[in-house]
Fold each of these.
Amino acid sequence: MKIERRQWLKALLAAPLAAALPALADSLEVIRQRGRLRIAVYNNFPPYSLPGGKGVDAEIGRAIAEKLGLSAEIVGFNADDDMNDDLRNMVWKGHYLGTQPADVMLHVPVDEHLARANDKVRIFGAYHRESLALARRPERVPALSGSAAVALEVFTREKVGVEVTSLADSFLLGVLNGRLRENVVHFRSVAEASKALAGGQVAAVLAPRAELEAGLKGATGVVLETAQFAELKVDSWPLGMAVKVEEPALAEALSGALAELKRDGSIAAIFKRNGISYLPA
């Protein structure tokens, strides 16, 4: 999970995000005249976006464009410091290095706090609900049961991997009054943590389910289960898209196309094709 999503999720447990600044809009009419929909996705973020315009988000973007009678231009970009920066860079203003904003950005958490903090964008169109999951070696870590104080006590003895500065990281460092800190192992990505789990360097990994499913493809001897604890305030979140706030016609057109893709099973098929569990939002 990229840093801006990590910090957004952590912010849900604390204070609201800072507000963004104004920008100019592109129009649906101009996009139709152009014949091409510019769709922003994160770089190197399996299973959602992969090199070569592949991945769940890229496929969803192309399917939406096709519904609108447009070709799709997939614009990959690197995550900035936080979600506010990403929305500024890829939706309403553009990057200071010269990258122009896209018409729509995918993989945006559909969250009222995020929306209020960024009044220059319109966040809508949830297409999937992401959730935290625990991938574990069953011979070392038993099935999750009870409160976090009971279910996670095993990690006072066993190592558990997380992506650095992620929601999972923040949760495990604080739960059980910090007793797990010495056994929380930090990785640069969920993919790296998954490799460590497959190789036996850690007994479990706590991370978003889709990223774990992508990272553990082909791995044996690993069990994946949903992580839900009373102590964990945020264990799932809807993923959607964002356009400039002054683009209601574009938002309506995109919402209509997405609704058709959900009704005819196309969204579910995209997730299945990529080997990822689909949870409607």
Amino acid sequence: MSGDRIELRGLRVLGVCGALPEERDRPQPLEVDLDVEADLAAAGRSDDLADTVDYGALAAAAVRVATDERFTLLERLATRIAEEVGADGRVTSVTVVVRKLRPPVAVDLGTAGVRVTWPGPERPASRPETTRRRAFLGLGSNLGDRQARLREAVAGLPDVVAVSPVYESEPVGGPPGQPLYLNAVVELATGLDPRALLEVAQGLEEAASRRRTEPDGPRTLDVDVLLVGDLQVCEPDLVVPHPRMYERRFVLAPLADIAADLVPAGWEERARGAVRLVGTL
């Protein structure tokens, strides 16, 4: 490692990041610092922009992530910025600091932030990648701003490679008079096992203030682990593949849009319920 470093300080952006309802409804002011390690010796000799890493491009990448994506945690936002900046092959290490300039706490606190280093000591670039599997999660919401809830869930998921179109469907079971659901399916390429994915799903539901007051009742967010490669799990709180996914049109329709190879032939005739395509996230 050369020890050379590009430093960016005090990048101000507006982004959606937070677990509180008021933080999810509107962007808030954030400040980003970047320490980008790269070999700058050639640029020092040549005085040629082509021989260095353009700090304007680094700043633009950070702004793009913070403004175009939505996050629950600062940790995830900082990691995504680090991943984007680190995608430049000349970059060997990135340290990202992200601060909330108006942290929503009941004390006199100037800023609240996190510091993330990529690739980090626990995941060195030379270490072989963890085996990744195709995993699919089903998302649903029928309370509040349903589409915003689905967008926030997608933004909070790791290793997303595809997101289905959004479908509207009637509730299955539960009390009468519930609002209609919006549903989507997300594909991940992940090293997480089914139990870890369940924990991610439950964390997203908790961040969306889901309340389990009655079986099959309305919910701000529902996240189901549908498939994780060819793994099978049968435990009291987790069954994979999801035991009812092949009966439900609101699961199979979006799944077919992004992974037609995984839906059974003739599912359109056998799946229950009706759905209506409403758009994309």
Amino acid sequence: MMDTSVIEIRRLPNYQLVSTTDFFFPLVDDPFLMGRIACANVLSDMYSEGVTEVDNLLMILAASIDMPPNCRDIVTWKMIEGFRSLAEEAGSSVTGGQSIYNPWPIIGGTAMSVVPKERVLMPTGAIEGDVLVLTKPLGTQVAVNAFQWINIDERWSRISDVVSREQLERAFDISAMSMERLNRKAAELMWKHGAHAATDVTGFGILGHAEALARNQSESVSFVIHTLPVIRAMAGVDAKLQNLFRLVKGRSAETSGGLLICLPKENVGAFCSEIYEAEGWPAIVVGTVEGGDRSASIAADVEIKEL
């Protein structure tokens, strides 16, 4: 499985059509922010295969029939505005889409681009000795869900002894900023620093996506994850909840997560320095590519690195 559909264009033999679709229910209260997160999430599939210029976006939208009409109008238009604003920042535009009525709001889209064959980074080229780098922290699902518990006494009491309100508010803010941040700069730097393969970390967690990427490899390699960069205090929250989200097992879902990139070892330092200089966010070395059977695993002595 790949993050996008890549097909030949019969009338343009040196080009390929790259496309992807994704949508989901809102996970934050701010509809404008939700629109931006949805746009970033759709575009990440394209960026994971090195497509830095996205020609077109179509929006997928559901307006809630369970909301009062005046609230529905405000929420729906704010989601649209948020999606469009980030599309413009990405150098793309929304030219159409599909909208329906639904009990719950839905936001997402389809991204498409016509790309020269040599500018598509197929997720198959990892080699033994590569280093795995992740461009965003883990723990967004834990942070977003736990943040909703602050004002629900019964639920807040389950975690209040391991995290303060201030810590949880900070974790939510970091999650929101992370989820709306484009992976475009990372995609540009993948080309500059000779990346061999990549995927974006979303609904199946870092281990699930590492497993899918490992299965795609041409060489007989395996991925070993030795470090999990986690938003501060979220590992403790999940542990208190008896690993409800399976964060330290690498199975916690992320929304608009980072790119997991296989880079030549000698280029990792420059990649990490340049992405931090450009964005102010660290990229973290999380593992290695070893000879193996196209599998992925979390090391027994995995390090939890709080950010």
